[in-house]
Structures
1.
Amino acid sequence: MKFSAAVFLVLILSTVIVAFAGEPDSARAYKDVAGKIIDEALANGQAYSRLRELCLQIGPRLSGSPAAAAAVEWSRQEMVKAGLDNVHLQPVMVPHWVRGEVEEASVVNSRQVGTVPLTVCALGGSVATPALGVVGKVIEVKTFEEVRRLGAGAKGAILFYNRPFDKTERNTFNAYVGAVDQRGRGAIEAARVGAVAVLVRSMTSRLDDIPHTGVMHYEDGVPQIPAAAISTVGANFLSELLQAEAGVRVNLRLSSHTLRDAPSANVIGEITGTELPDEVVLLGGHLDSWDKGQGAHDDGAGCVQALEALSLLKTLGLKPKRTIRAVMFINEENGTRGGKAYAAEIAANGPRHIAAIESDRGGFMPTGISVDADPGGPAFKSVAKWSFLLESIQAHRFEKGYSGVDIAALGDHGTLVMGLVVESQRYFDYHHSDNDTIDKVNERELELGAATLAVMSYVLANEGVGVEGR
Amino acid sequence: MKFSAAVFLVLILSTVIVAFAGEPDSARAYKDVAGKIIDEALANGQAYSRLRELCLQIGPRLSGSPAAAAAVEWSRQEMVKAGLDNVHLQPVMVPHWVRGEVEEASVVNSRQVGTVPLTVCALGGSVATPALGVVGKVIEVKTFEEVRRLGAGAKGAILFYNRPFDKTERNTFNAYVGAVDQRGRGAIEAARVGAVAVLVRSMTSRLDDIPHTGVMHYEDGVPQIPAAAISTVGANFLSELLQAEAGVRVNLRLSSHTLRDAPSANVIGEITGTELPDEVVLLGGHLDSWDKGQGAHDDGAGCVQALEALSLLKTLGLKPKRTIRAVMFINEENGTRGGKAYAAEIAANGPRHIAAIESDRGGFMPTGISVDADPGGPAFKSVAKWSFLLESIQAHRFEKGYSGVDIAALGDHGTLVMGLVVESQRYFDYHHSDNDTIDKVNERELELGAATLAVMSYVLANEGVGVEGR
């Protein structure tokens, strides 16, 4: 075949040209360093044992909770123990939403099944129902367009958003993006047509009876109605019942409510650069989690990886020219207050951040780096040229893509922002649910993610990113 | 930098040349087909529900056990239900080893810790100890060279093989290969110097208290001594105790023994080729498992994937020119009788097998295909040229490598043999232990492996492998 003949010719040519070009000393030296970092992470890494401690001794840590305060102090102490420089807290006021004691829902007096409980949980930010709950006729919808067409027909109803994940999406984050508007804006759109509450199909393609929480929003001038996630098993059951029987009603009871903002903090530590200490490469994750499971993959993993990356460099005696800083951001889940406060502080007072990488896609096998820059441009290339350092662990796929919620704002101030990309298939089985626990994390995969951060931060701290910003 | 400049130049050149070459119709058509196969697997695949049934309703299925017989009949019925052609059993006599009721070990009367239980399990094939157990002084060794140096000093002792996995190996299979000689030949080498039993550190880098079984061997003319795996936690404890205290003794009790060979079978079904029905592309896994856990990843996954690949093609109405056959081999774990009988039958009576792919590395995210052929040769290239079909799921890494235990012998008769390669980090957490259960399998990863087999078998069945054998 012509096609494959051409490809092979090119492959052979590539090999020849690269072989002739040879590897200059710095490439060879960095490859050596990368090998040592990966060896050390796999042989003696501490990321997993730290994450186990965070998950089992502190547990879930929603912004404003006592556990979140414990996590901040635990992180500070871990940074001190790891011998980081300039360990400090950046105070941040955070939203303080609590789930309360009650969250339950039932189909009421169905002709076919009688009264049947449904597995639900309040969405983050939701107001409570009255103490006895809210009862309404259930109307199933899949789009906001359908909601608007309901018009006055939705008055007094409970809208049931049931558009599932598109399972054919190869990357599960695309499926998430394709469904999550229901959770984020569902209550607003429903309230506009007079609905009294919403149930939202959990954000996962997995079929089980575990509801997945996550942030939802209200809008000024639109009534605030209660919003709950329903498990995928519950959603399928309810949908089938609605097809079989007219006038199905549900009673929803939630006790969630929002308290006054609470004091909290971003946790910061670093390895001071030997030559350009006032230029920073940032590694980050977010310390807060939802109040379900243990926040293991989301995002305890990213926090311990950022710390581990610095620990690995210290253990190996590697001294970067620029400063490498680990930041555990607070309040990514329901406010991004930590990320916003951090970006504002850097914009106002520096130091200059040349690059930032966030790990917030779970502690799975790393596959590469997403760079928020034009793939044809010099910034992208200045990063992607180092991908060969990660080839031994197959984490060398560098693509244009999103960085992370906590660091995206840094990009607006000239920082080249990036994300650690990992195998995505398992993430939404666990995300924001009781399933997100330490036993779902594989130690080696977690460590290889940390090693990837260590390798990239070290080489970028030494070599820079070539151009200002993106 | 010169190095990266050269690389970028080559990348740009590659793009240009490939773009000019264009995609001929057949490449485009196969890409379409591959996309449909992957969509169907992700949206409607049955591999996971079949595997759940095999794991939960039949469970572990060691050769010769009633559960293995159930698994054979279940598989036959599943193939019939899936509408495969020529569904049949190939009778095979298999070894019949049983674990028995008793397997326990204790440190006896240690000065420091008294009598303490150790978590062990019999290695597959091991003889029993006397009913009251065997007691011996424990000697820790890491190599057979050390064993030989012990000489008469090992007489009456229990040798404790404690060479761990090399955690720095990027691919865990290499770590396994570097340690598994202790399990396979440990009893032989120990018996030669007069030891009365062996304990072998479990074949995993994970630290937990679950022992991992697996096959061990005896040799004619060498006394058969009992052999057990000890958990990694137990091995570390025992090793520390040995350093602190001289003359530590262990009592080991095993009731395992070998019965007469039992009748069993390989399970075979196919989609008959439309143009060359007497030429076969084989997809395989092995149906037997160890008698621990549920044999989910090892290798229920491979079996349901082979069947799923054919189901996907049938569902999509894809009719291959050559026959595609799914084979669930029996007795991979302790005898390879199924694989040997199959290869002997094909060598004697055909039909000709042009290619075979085994899935026996767990149902994890597929990363590519290992081809047991010279990477510079035409056989390798005739397969690797199709890797672009798997790029959308990042399973397009084609490398020279091992195929699979059950199909390797086919390679000697001119078949191009290959293996499905998957992400390796988690496999040995579960392998041959109570941890190998259905909850460790991710539905989407399992399906994507099946889709990879479907895509490759379909294109090879239509296009052939270019040359005879390797």
2.
Amino acid sequence: VDFPYRFSRLAESMRPSPIRELFAMTQRAGMISFAGGLPDPAIFPVDEFAACGDVLLSQGQSVLQYGATEGWRPLVDILCRRMTELLGQEIGPERLVIATGSQQVMDMAARVLLDPGDTVVAEAPTYPGALHTFRSVGARFALVPCDAEGMRVDLLPEVIERARSETGRLPKLVYSIVSFSNPSGASLSPSRRVELVEVARRYGVPVLEDDPYRELRYAGEAAQPAFRSASGEGVIFASSFSKILAPGVRVAWAVAEPSLIRRMVIAKQGMDLCTPVVTQALVAEYCRRGHLDRHLEKIRDHYAAKAAAMAAALRRELPLGAAKWSDPEGGFFFWLQLPGRKAREVFDAAIEEGVAFLPGETCYPGPSETVGEGVDGRAFARLCFTFASSDDIVEGCRRMSRVLTRGSAFGVRGPGGAGES
Amino acid sequence: VDFPYRFSRLAESMRPSPIRELFAMTQRAGMISFAGGLPDPAIFPVDEFAACGDVLLSQGQSVLQYGATEGWRPLVDILCRRMTELLGQEIGPERLVIATGSQQVMDMAARVLLDPGDTVVAEAPTYPGALHTFRSVGARFALVPCDAEGMRVDLLPEVIERARSETGRLPKLVYSIVSFSNPSGASLSPSRRVELVEVARRYGVPVLEDDPYRELRYAGEAAQPAFRSASGEGVIFASSFSKILAPGVRVAWAVAEPSLIRRMVIAKQGMDLCTPVVTQALVAEYCRRGHLDRHLEKIRDHYAAKAAAMAAALRRELPLGAAKWSDPEGGFFFWLQLPGRKAREVFDAAIEEGVAFLPGETCYPGPSETVGEGVDGRAFARLCFTFASSDDIVEGCRRMSRVLTRGSAFGVRGPGGAGES
């Protein structure tokens, strides 16, 4: 008999994030995984990064000690310079905090801003890990539908108003992945970025502008961050080294007004005291040596080729009319609509066929945690094109094709069933 | 005008942890700091650790990728072996989770077990960082006084009963630093460890047995962990590499029943997805090369000498009757009672004199967050003996002596005031 733990109400309502299940699947022998949003390990700058291990020797006594909660100063300074340039205003260290991955930025924002029952406005579909973090402080979600230009910001006032009338108070936060969104791949158009911040400021609802894919553009023109249109007021800008260098370092950062950064730092003290100085120092050294910008050029080429490979394979392999999508201009994902299908059923058949993707429904909150109108994501599938090799991209799309060709008899093993195809 | 953020109720009630203030003070020129609980950077195994940077090259593709939330498997296996030996039962990976520092273990436990208003039973005095984390989920505290053998476990049933009658429900957790406690330096006696778990099991209140200083014993005999007496049931055992290797790696771990570990893992997913694989791999390699046990012998000698230096300096320098203490047998701290003084006033004068310590009151919750009887810690001071050099330990005790000799006229600059002494 287990010890009779009395779990917290929030823990009782928590379910494992689907990301967990996906990690397990990507390990199965022979599986081609488009499921996790993982960078390609083949493109990690292993040699250059390992060489930065010099700092563990040259600055060992500082690097191995506790660090400031705000971040390792040399890295803070590097990021302040980059952010000053990107955001078009002087970003001093009082406006920046380093976090143990973007997930921790969300968690800090959640703890500082959200009480149980508070509403977060998110675009639908959105990143399942963001739902997990906000859910874990008891948040509910109000959803803004998306189109090819990202969040339908024209609908935002109506969504905010409806959440206010249904819950008796204004939402506390708007969350948006503004460039090559996870999962939709869509980027918020320049005019919508301006409008997003205008609406949020009009209502006094801050925006968490999550932008980890910004530098992974393979085509088209970059839009200014929303933070820039707003001069930062009411915007928390977040980004990360996970997609542009390596997720295994778990180094991300947030930029916001000093009053908010101070609160986030206090919250972070109770979370992990500080992000590991070891990883911050390695990342700082990597940047100091000028590797990052060179690496960015390299991965943009690498991922552009993979995106093209998946676009071509999907067009060539999938049965006519089985899926609709727009080719992404950057980021990590294709977002497929599978007309007339339930992606979860397609997923089960795909696993048997040896290919994995993320069923769309994981990118939407459930009905019980949604304020206002829900969005049905059951017909969608997220395919990550960065992780699998180019050969696997082609073979994986062939497997997807076999699944989609078989009509709706998913999960039924006929005489010529999955095991033999 | 700042953006009108509406902070969460918990954020509104949060204050910076005193640790923050202390980090700032240790940076001031000429300051001798006994304040922060920092290891001695001079004893960090910089060469050996930096040489482990080889794994960044040899296993770069795995080390730079996302990792499992439970932990990097090679490190999990190393810790399972160590814990199996220490805890006297087979500890498989389903019973262990790696965390980004012990602070995150507390945060995971807090999120999984505590609702706002729930009570945590803690020994008084206790680690200010633990108060900060539990406070940040809205916990209140019921206090068990300590003596030279640690928590007065004989009083625990009464404290639990009283908290139940005052709050209408049982406490959710008992928190104790069982070996060389922070701040008191006291270790829970073997019989009390058994009794602690018996009481906690009788009431169904789990124990978080925080044991980061266990291997830093300079005299006397080690007691078995409470986890061992309980065969683990209802005990969360936590430890860390911060004190035995380096805090800058931010690698800690918790051992508990699988049902609880699973919940903690789900909570951790929303916190940082996983502890940096980079630091876990470096620590695993450091252990694999057999450095840890050799290093432990070295730091035990090193810190034993420093503990002896502080014991001698305090006895030699402090005015007779100005302070009472027991020499610690391990860990990081002296805990001084300053009869008739307010440690905060002594602290202010000490800062002017160029020596810093941790005023005792930071190690107790405030009256408004205490359930049942409070404990007055205002006459106590925590002095860390590990961080300062041996010369600074002597000079710091001389400065303490000057402050304590000056009677109660603290903060008043007379003609021969602080600046000249």
3.
Amino acid sequence: VTAAGETGRLCVGLISGTSADGIDAALVRIAAAAPRVELIAFESSPYPPHVRDELMALYDPAASNAVARLCSLNVVVGDLFASAALGVCRQAGIAADQVWVIGSHGQTVWHQPATDPLLPLSVPSTLQIGEPAVIAERTGAPVVADFRTADMAAGGQGAPLVPYFDWAVLRDPARTRAVQNIGGIGNVTCLPAGGDLASVRAFDTGPGNMVIDALVTLLTGGAQTYDRDGRLATGGRVDGDLLERLLREPYFETAPPKTTGREEFGMPYARRLMEGYGLAAGSLAPEGGATEAERARVRNLIATATALTARSIADAYRRWLPAIDEAIVSGGGSRNPVLMAMLADLLAPVPVLTLDALGIDGRAKEAMAFALMAHDALMGCPTNVPGATGARRAVPLGKLVPPGRRADPLA
Amino acid sequence: VTAAGETGRLCVGLISGTSADGIDAALVRIAAAAPRVELIAFESSPYPPHVRDELMALYDPAASNAVARLCSLNVVVGDLFASAALGVCRQAGIAADQVWVIGSHGQTVWHQPATDPLLPLSVPSTLQIGEPAVIAERTGAPVVADFRTADMAAGGQGAPLVPYFDWAVLRDPARTRAVQNIGGIGNVTCLPAGGDLASVRAFDTGPGNMVIDALVTLLTGGAQTYDRDGRLATGGRVDGDLLERLLREPYFETAPPKTTGREEFGMPYARRLMEGYGLAAGSLAPEGGATEAERARVRNLIATATALTARSIADAYRRWLPAIDEAIVSGGGSRNPVLMAMLADLLAPVPVLTLDALGIDGRAKEAMAFALMAHDALMGCPTNVPGATGARRAVPLGKLVPPGRRADPLA
């Protein structure tokens, strides 16, 4: 076993999100003492298009030969995850067999935290592929994989899991922190000052960038897919009446734990919002020839959608969190200065920092989290957060695949 | 850890075969010394019909929502496996948390040892369901599951795996043994006298009961599904010309390692055989009114099919095995006295024993094998047999799921 003392153990974390863009790999050094996880290398590898197409095909309820295709895809994706692990080691000049453990989230192909009444025999369940035995074989490292099933077996929703990382790495003995991620969806982890794992709460605050992104995509006819640097929102004015109406959405008043997603705040939501505001798709397309009044209206709507994200976050803190001393923001939304300014206004005098400002690369956070969960699982620690997933109790997550080959099993 | 000394560790093995009839559970005591595995209790639980229907539905290439259904079924089947493990412990009056490890093969829903040229992205792969995290949660025992993937990652066919049990339990320092299972398909494990794991060879010899069963089912119009006690074959005479023709099937001359199945020796094969012999389906049906000549012809055909199994086994030994000192037969075929007599004739003077005569319950063998593989995997032993699967080397098989809860983690 690699000495854990001063230097810590080398671990790799691997994940591909539900959008199935590609695989994030983080090589980290993990120690028992703060800061616990130190990033050594990070690499994001897009899926080859034919693999992504095949993954997307499985979402089609009418896909033929789905079980046979899933069976192959499990190995194909596992092979790509192995390559991602080897790649991030190569980048850092580290031999893969020096890696103490690889934590692989895999690729989610289905996740139903609740029963689907339209399907026979439906039960809460989740399905990740990316065969860890293939990763173990190609890297020679032990692999911990398939983290969500044990939480669900203990009555949880199997998500979110990253709050474990937040608690392990970002908790503070004296300050209560809200760790806010703003991806497509916004989610917060609340870390009470000096609190243990049982004190941690986490839930989705509502839309993150999803509504803004969808509006920008619709209104520019696809010429832009997000509001880069908040440029569109900057020139707009928040429509206060519309904002108050949007905040009446029942999700915001539901008590946590709770999750939301594309079903609620995806493209159909944005389209209704756009049409209700009297705008048509492509209004801001390069060839659209919009009038100045139309352009102003577009900017106002984007500003209002940005305010929706900021307000829903601030409202959620007021409603469901204890008084916080600090908010730490990561995700694409942390790079939108309009959104960040709105959030700072709403939370003042509580300081709003970015995760990057704390020296943690936000892009690598999820992959780092699975490296940490794999490491701590091997140490015998429960790694789910019942206050986030709703599980009956803390349980160890993941299945261990022993290394297929190691030059020296004691190395 | 339960003391392993005199008494051994309590382990449970679970499997459901590809026919998806139901779950076999064996509670065993495993020790380092011979006989290594001692059966304490065995129970076979049929799947509830609606679960079996849903499993079968997944084989339909046109099944809709297959991925969502598989996702749920993984948990539903895991839950039934957990119940089977708890059931066999209850039967023996043993608390589930006294079990040291559960080895769960799971339910195979797809297995393609070779690439399927008709499917995009097809690679050798295998897919077992029956979520082990659910078994660990409900039993409180650690679970080792998903044994076939690591062998395939090491270049093997992922099957057969039971030869590991044969070697561990049935090898002899002085006698070379052929351990012959006669299920639907016949398969043999050759254990050279005093040989190590690398010396073991295993392959499918050809049809076991499959052709006999299919003929009986066809000819009796389903009134009988197998030749109970060899009664039909007893009154028949082997057609030597036909037998020689059948033995020219290329499979028999292919060098091992090799596998065969329903594709080759299933119902279409039996139907061709029946029709080529001038017999019609239902000839021997209760209401068939067959002439005495027809009845004799039916018996001759069944006797010939029985001889095909016996000859293909004996020929395979002569062609591919070293000189054997003993044959040990298990499976349904070991209860067909005509088949056993033919085999004894062909192999004489080599004695032909049954597994049951050695004090090992043949019905429980597969489930016992997965208990043993789980146990030995936790001991750090490779448990695949490269001479059986074609893997590049011996590797540990299975993924370890830690127990979700244990009153005392050191118990």
